Amino acid sequence: MVSHIMGWDKSFTKTLIQIIDKGQVTLKEHPDVQAFNDSSVAFGRNMKPHDAK
Q1: Average pLDDT in the 37-53 region?
Q2: Under a CB-based contact definition with an 8 Å cutoff, are residues 40 and 6 in contact?
Q3: For residues 2 and 43, is the Cβ–Cβ distance under 8 A?
Q4: FRET label pair with 4: which of 21, 31, 34, 50, CA 20 to 30 Å apart?
Q5: In 1-53, at which residue ranges do the beta strands (DSSP E only) sit?
Q6: How far apart are CA 27 and CA 47, in angstroms?
Q7: Mean pLDDT to the nearest integer, 41-47
Q8: C-alpha 8 chain-centroid distance
Q9: Is a pLDDT exceeding 80 seen at residue 7?
Q10: CA 14 from chain center: how many Å?
Q11: Is 6's pLDDT higher than 80?
Q12: Is 47 helix (H, G, I), strand (E, B) or coil?
């Protein structure tokens, strides 16, 4: 669950930086939510507790 939240937080932060830096305010739907979630879960299965930053 932590890795899932970490993945979306990282994605949102990247988008937020683009908005701040470039004045870009267009938010788009993620192209493949399920694949993104699956990737986050796979990452979480291999991460150590100290990796949860």
Answers
A1: 80
A2: yes
A3: no
A4: 21
A5: none
A6: 30
A7: 84
A8: 3
A9: yes
A10: 8
A11: yes
A12: coil
Is 34 in contact with 5 (CB distance < 8 Å)? no
CA distances from 17 to 2, 8, 12, 24, 29 (A): 22, 14, 9, 9, 17
**Average pLDDT of the residues in 22-44:** 83
Q: Is the pLDDT of residue 27 over 80?
A: no
Can you tell me the distance from the alpha carbon of 33 to that of 4, in angstroms, rounded to the nearest whole number? 11
Q: Who's near 52: CB < 8 A, 6+ residues apart?
A: 2, 3, 6
State the DSSP code for 39.
H
Largest distance between two CA atoms of the chain:
37
CA dist 8 and 29 (Å) reads 13
Q: Tell me the C-alpha distance between 22 and 1, whole Å.
A: 32
